[in-house]
């Protein structure tokens, strides 16, 4: 056989680079696209996957990552997302160890590096898919499509739809792709040009597939890609050759099928033999009662995913909650898009199967296989998924699109000579610019959420997240506007109601806050946080019985709820039920030993009720856990002063002032201590410091005037 490059490869308007140069250029392009996210923040659901995930903490047993889901919840829990990705969580843990904590830069840099490696690896994958695995007389590997594989890899490296996978810390998509493409390489190598195969190599590919599934479940689909490659390699798209290779083909397919079945069974067992539960707002089409409506809307979702690959301009961090309204009638003009999608797919399938050009058949078939098979887990065909559209699930599928696009560029370059260089470079530059722009938007929650407003103005979650970000930054007035819009768009959005009710509570708009929070708990009766906030509002409205009931409802739905016990204690204190208040605060400190407010309130209540000895014990117990808490030091110092333990009290006052020297009340109470102790000069100094910090401090001016008269009297007596 005479080895020659593909006839259309040399028409591609790129310079022919050596293997090393093409890899360096591809890695550089991938780096340029996403490097500006390297010092970005943790954004969106990174707070749950990274910040609040205890499995990252070195103090947590390493074995926990094999028992918990991606978010750190136990897989057996009803609230678990069932996303079992222990190897991805392990990489987070390694990042944590290397950086000495939760520093985003290390997480982001590893993400960018992973994408660069995968993009470089894609050159070999595309070269094998387009031209096959061939060797020269010395056994060295040859590429029959150096330009085409290079161009496809450049498209992959720079595609803007990858931004979510690369610029967000999540990493499950890029980590989960490194192994699948290694699997493909192994499987492709296991079937050589002489159609012989190695069982060992196939078992190796199944093992790597298992590793990929431990990064993300989508890794299982690579076995389907390998099976398709095997069929196409064996029969070379020629059905008549199939019979001659049937025994070897069936053996390989059987091994892949058995391996895949075992992996799926193991995954099902780990998941607890039950799928995760999703709500209608996550995926409304899957809850449509009419089967026809479900099918139509699923296909519309497919067309939107295809559009994101073709024109990745409208990108959004979340596509749920009304972002994509359901198609409910045959007169909806959007039905045109799934029809167009299937016409295009059928055209590609026809060319892939019936073209006289064997290389065209091969390239388009592999492009379609890579495009469709990795997308199947997200298609709702086998099980309900928890999203409408998710750009991250296109990371693998985009490889098939890039392969088809590279072929299209080569085909057009063969027939239209003019402007082919400028057109190709323009396409690449637009991709790079859009990726860099989108990567910049993923640097912070403020820019990410704001960018979504123009893409999904009907998405209640977008307005909710914009409002939450504004509230976190102290702009509560602006946050109210977005929370109200979120509730208007989705009247059952309980989290938006809860957050809006909290802001209204702080603004003393208690009646409306009560209405919102009552509606939230009526919609979702087990919403513990809303019950607690409703209790706080009812307490402020003097509806003490209802407030108490709301607090106990919150505790009933969340057994370990220290903040709720704290607020319950405040209610009991207002009702002069001192024993109940102390018990509630003690429960809060048992559930959360560093609950400073609960400890401090116990000391103050015991002080106010004359139980000074017990107050002293509680204060010292609290400081063993919170040795630098200046508020507890202040309260304990007051208790010791009343017991005339002046020296010990002075020490706690001074320690509190070392930590926070600008507290007027601390200077004022220390001055009172010195006043009683007879250290009048020190008392005068601290009275003056207190008045300088807060001229209107209650009682301080009167005490200071009393001290001045006493000093004047002493001076006259001495004189």
Automatic annotation (TrEMBL):
GO molecular function, one term: dolichyl-phosphate-mannose-protein mannosyltransferase activity
The protein's name in its UniProt record: dolichyl-phosphate-mannose--protein mannosyltransferase
Record keywords, A-Z: Endoplasmic reticulum, Membrane, Repeat, TPR repeat, Transferase, Transmembrane, Transmembrane helix
PANTHER family: PROTEIN O-MANNOSYL-TRANSFERASE TMTC4 (PTHR44227:SF3), PTHR44227
Pfam family, one: TPR_19
Pathway note: Protein modification; protein glycosylation
Organism: Cyprinus carpio
EC number: 2.4.1.109
Enzyme class, spelled out: transferase
Membrane-traversing stretches: 112-134, 197-215, 222-240, 246-266, 298-315, 335-353, 365-387, 393-412
Renumbered ranges of TPR repeats: 460-493, 494-527, 528-561, 562-595, 664-697
Main location: endoplasmic reticulum
Localisation per UniProt entry: Endoplasmic reticulum; Membrane
Similarity section: Belongs to the TMTC family.
Mode of membrane association: Multi-pass membrane protein
Keyword Transferase: yes
ATP-binding as UniProt keyword: no
BP-aspect Gene Ontology terms: endoplasmic reticulum unfolded protein response
Occurrences of domain DUF1736 (ranges): 274-346
Stored InterPro entries: O-mannosyl-transferase_TMTC (IPR052346), TMTC_DUF1736 (IPR013618), TPR-like_helical_dom_sf (IPR011990), TPR_rpt (IPR019734)
GO cellular component, one term: membrane
Upper taxonomic lineage: Eukaryota, Metazoa, Chordata, Craniata, Vertebrata
